[in-house]
Amino acid sequence: MNSTSTVKGRGAQLNVPNRFFELQHEMRDDFLEFCRKEDEAPSKNKTKFLEVFPKTIVNKVTSPDVGMAYSMNVYQGCEHGCIYCYARNTHEFWGYSAGLDFERRILVKKTAPKLLEAHLKNKNWKAQPIVMSGNTDCYQPAESKYKITRSCLKAFLNYKHPVGIITKNALILRDLDLLKALAKDNLIGVNISITSLSEDTRRILEPRTATIKKRLETVKILSENGIPVNVMMAPIIPGINSHEILSLAKAASEHGAVSIGHTIVRLNGAIGEIFTDWIKKTMPDRAEKVLHQIESCHGGSLNNSRFGSRMRGEGKIAEQINTLVKLARHKYFRDKKMPKLNLALYEPCKDGQLKLF
Predict the structure, then answer these.
(1) Domain made up of 31-334: CATH architecture
(2) Neighbours of 255 (CB within 10 A)
(3) Average pLDDT for the chain
(4) How many whole angstroms separate alpha carbon 169 and alpha carbon 138?
(5) Close Cβ partners of 171 (under 8 Å, ≥ 6 residues apart)
């Protein structure tokens, strides 16, 4: 793989226009040439962390294609920089670009633990699993500093409320003490995202994520400590990682995962332009082939918003991918499955009846 990326350590290589803005910022060729001659960077590549103050933190998920009813996100934007990330489009609601801004402008919700506790105290709330990272990774690099996710896990534990986690960062092991305590009452399920077994592929797809070795070790350590782990092979990208389905599933099973999940990549909104620019710079020799194969999975378009087909795709290539995943489940996860989380302990804890125990 030849990398001609101009912005080191990032997934996106440009800031695409925000669809909600009438005006847009453009890097002109003459300015870029001036920067080159002066040996200056056209823009600063540092991450900025900006505090925001939401009124609520738990969101109802209405999509029938997603295996969660409620989610919460303690950060908006994600420094991991995964080029395919569907959450990029949400950064436009905050006034930023789905491209480089998504990776370099991280919005931090320091009040998330208090908002969560207020939600859990609500007399009308009935226990349902709340998934952390329904949009952006709760264990992205910012968590090392802010520790917001850890504070939220303490609230879940205090109220004996079920919680799910989606991450691709080994930083989750920092909170092993809380995860083990939650697991004792079957209150936690963890989803680790692993898209490839190749470090070369990982570096260009997900530049600031944990290595594949660390992620597999994380699956193993969590599993050995009684914490159920589902490995998300998501997204499957034809021509990039679609050939790894069986080997990925085998590795996940051998490291203790009890199930696997998958999606087929779809490039909605601004992500289509960001991904196309990226792959033409990063994999020029196979760019058109990959893009055409993605289109073949979604009725001739990079974009697919139709419930029922957007996650699994359609057509011959999508059928082959879905069949391989089905075969992988039968071969490596025949007698395994993620347990349902415990909903029974929350009400007594909310009412204060178990405070002494």
Answers:
(1) Alpha-Beta Barrel (3.20)
(2) 21
(3) 90
(4) 9
(5) 139, 143, 144, 210
Enter the DSSP assignment of 338.
P
Q: Name the pairing type of β-strands 130-132 and 163-167.
A: parallel
Q: pLDDT per residue over 147-174, tens digit each?
A: 999 999 999 999 999 999 999 999 999 9
10 Å CB burial of residue 103 (0-12, 13-18, 19+) is buried
Q: Which residues pair with 231 in a beta bridge?
A: 192, 260
Provide the pairing of β-strand 163-167 with 188-193. parallel
Q: Choose among 128, 229, 130, 233: nearest CA to 176.
A: 229
Q: For residue range 22-56, what is the model confidence (pLDDT) as tens digits? A: 556 665 666 556 656 656 666 667 899 999 999 99
Is this prediction's pTM over 0.85?
yes
Chain centroid to Cα 148, Å, comes to 17
Q: Are 315 and 297 in contact (CB under 8 A)?
A: yes
Cα 243 from Cα 324, distance rounded (Å):
9
Contacts of residue 301, defined as CB under 8 A and 6 or more positions apart, other chains included, come to 295
Residues in the chain: 357
Nearest to 127 by CA among 343, 339, 342: 343
At position 295, the amino acid (one-letter code) is E
